[in-house]
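A protein record pairs a chain with a discrete description of its three-dimensional fold. The following entry can be read in just this way:
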Amino acid sequence: MRTVVIGGTGHIGTYLVPELVRLGHQVTVLSRGERTPYHSDGAWQRVELIQVDRAAEDAAGTFGQRVAELSPDVVIDLICFTEDSARQLAEAVQGKIQHLLHCGTIWVHGPSVVVPTREDTPRRPFGDYGVQKAAIEAYLLGMARRDGLPVTIVHPGHICGPGWTPVNPAGNFDLGVFDKLAQGSGVLLPNFGLETLNPVHAADVAGVFLAAIASRSTAVGESFHAVAGDAVTLRGYAEGVAGWFGQEAQLTFGAWDEWRRTVSDQDAGATRDHIEHSPNCSMDKAARLLGFRPRYSALEATLDAIGWLVENGKITT
């Protein structure tokens, strides 16, 4: 089976591409060529790598045709962020491929209302990223219903894994929060620390894509979450990380207006985005239709990333 992975050298592709190779797929990866996978795997030696500037080719209206001319059976799109980009690809491969898989985001849901949130929950996205991804989902699933486009959408949560910084227990990406928890120092959390995060290990996101390919007949025309089987509160996350370092979390709490004055505007913006969503998404549909259950819990996914940060001297213990 010939499979094209668009953006295949990032977080998800690091795990997905080698598994596709081991399953017998003939894999071509399209990427900007600006980075290598986050960890090495001999399977990459059997992957065809093509350097592509998708944004430029989308602007020129040529990207979809470039993909179609590779004559793939399966296309996995990990880096599509606008409806126009999705449309160009979908129209170019319609009637020519067996399966199109698109990487979405749980941000299509907007703020949590009833949890765990199911895939059929009405969409109320906010922020440009979530709004654009919801529009892509609506377009692709609409094309599936009207024109038979064989598409599946996978919505990851906060992707974690060795090689990059996970969202921290304050809901942003300041490594200093991990330093404090590792050292047993005090950490100030917003509100009462009861908002939630929905981490997922990149290997489990890859697993949902693989399960959807293997269960094509039940996956086509559907959206699936790709998160850990549980969500974690900011407070619970902080306590879990501190405990991993052999410390007891020294936590204090501050109302939002008080807390945001203690951090940079960038960190405050990231935290606000995370806690306004407070995601807690269900994996029942993936279990029922794809037979997939995540390997990593929310805390395990983050700790795998934190362990790498410690080993590489990025967290001070």
